[in-house]
Structure formats: C-alpha cells, structure tokens
Specification:
This protein has 255 residues and is an alpha/beta fold. It contains nine helices and nine strands. α2 crosses α3 and α7 packs antiparallel against α8. The longest helix is centred in the first third of the chain and has 18 residues.
Length: 255
C-alpha cells in the first residue's frame, strides 16, 4: 500500500464522514457534541488509569458498547501484551467496536456464554440496565468468569442524579454494597467521581451550549486542567458516579 492510502486509512480512527448532517428543513450541522462529555471522559479516564496501574493480564469488558473503555486502556498501555475482550448484547454496538478498535476482540454475547476466566472484569455503567429479578444471576455469571484473585471494576450512576428513563435504578454506596455482598463480592476501594457544583456546571456551559461547542485546543487544555482540580473527584453526596474495585469474598464462599 502506498503512503497516500495509509494517510487516508488513518482518518478512520473515527467515522468522520458521519459528523456533518444535512437536514433540509432545519439546516445543517458540521459536528455533533455530547453535552455530558466531561462527565463521560472523567469516569472513563479514571477507570482506565485505575486498571492500567494494576496491569491485569486479561480484561473482560462486559457491556462494552462501542469499545471505548478498552480503547482508553490501550492508549495508556503501549506494550499491548494484555488480552482485551469486550462483549455486549447489542450487535450494532459490537460492529462499531470492531471497526473503531485495533487490538481488542469483541463479541455479541452474554457473559454466561463466555469461556475461560479473566484477571479483571469491568461493568462500566452496566448494573443500572439490569432488571432487579436477574441482577443476582447476572453477577453470579460475572463471578464465574473472574479468576480467584481477580478484580471487578464497577461504575454506576449515583442517586444524586435523577434516574434516566433507560435505567432501572441509580445507586447509593449502601445499595451497591448490599447488591455485591449478596453475590459474594467485597468492595475494596470506593471512589466518587465528577462533582455536582455550580463551578462544574459553568465549565460545562462554557464548553458546550446551544450556540457553540468549544474546540480551541489551547482553551480546552486549560479548562481540562482546571476541571481536574475542581470537579474531577467528588464526595458521596455530590458525585454523579460511584466507582468501586471489588474482589470475590473467599470467606463468604467457604461458609
């Protein structure tokens, strides 16, 4: 392949042709924005750093969607000696994951149907999508895929945020602890992510609003550095997300 081909192929790190949209009734837009993008980047950046620092040999991302978390992890682990696997029940999401990621394996699959075990399993914004009547069985299936010394990484939306219509519930730390304890998991570390405050709301309005989306790199770098100091970490009563690291509670399993 010649150099020009590789230059063109490099553009497909993202399907950029889908950014501009033409609507003859309402006009056009040349890009799309995610209003809660800072919130999203916060927990994805935090969790991926958490996992890379532990350096598990194998990772299973359950409910991986379009594979963005594993992409974050790969970008921070240049050696790529680890085994990264993502699964999701949505076939369209898996197709996006396969198209947008280079070093990972993705399946449209249920965790109960997976083979083998993994040193780390992630449930990132997943539990709130699981109906009450099957959440215990789901966590049992997750436990069966985790090595005895493996770690489970979970993020869930906090009750400080109104429950989204597509979610069954949002979580307090107590509810999350009770849910995991009933399924033989013990929380080892807890983090409260993305602060709810007037200053963070102001930053969000500066970055994205109805008139413009801020894209000037000098400004976005400055704002990100400021945001990390005042809004990245939070407390239980003012966070939008709860992140925990958990392990299989071997003591409970012996009872």
């Amino acid at each position: 392949m010649d150099t020009k081909f590789h230059l063109q192929a490099a553009q497909y790190a993202f399907p950029y042709h889908w950014l501009p949209i033409l609507d003859k009734k309402y006009g056009f837009t040349l890009g799309q924005s995610l209003a809660w993008g800072l919130d999203y980047l916060t927990y994805m950046d935090f969790i991926s750093t958490l996992i890379v620092n532990q350096n598990p040999l194998s990772i299973l991302d359950v409910g991986c969607g379009d594979g963005r978390l594993l992409s974050f992890i790969c970008s921070k682990n240049k050696e790529l000696k680890n085994i990264y696997t993502g699964i999701d029940l949505c076939e369209k999401a898996i197709l996006f994951a396969k198209l947008l990621n280079d070093h990972e394996t993705f399946f449209s699959n249920n965790v109960a149907d997976m083979k083998g075990s993994f040193d780390a399993i992630t449930l990132i914004e997943v539990l709130e999508h699981i109906p009450d009547e099957i959440i215990s069985d789901f966590l049992t299936d997750v436990q069966n895929r985790l090595t005895p010394d493996g770690r489970l990484y979970i993020s869930v939306p906090a009750i400080n945020v109104p429950t989204n219509e597509k979610h069954y519930r949002h979580y307090s730390l107590q509810l999350l602890q009770e849910t995991l304890q009933m399924n033989e998991f013990k929380i080892e570390n807890t983090y409260f992510i993305h602060k709810i405050s007037w200053s963070v709301s102001l930053i969000r309005r500066i970055v994205v609003n109805r008139i413009y989306t801020l894209n000037a790199s000098a400004m976005t770098k400055l704002i990100w550095n400021l945001y990390q100091r005042i809004g990245y970490m939070a407390a239980e009563n003012n966070c939008t997300h709860i992140v925990v690291e958990a392990r299989i509670n071997s003591k409970d399993r012996q009872v």
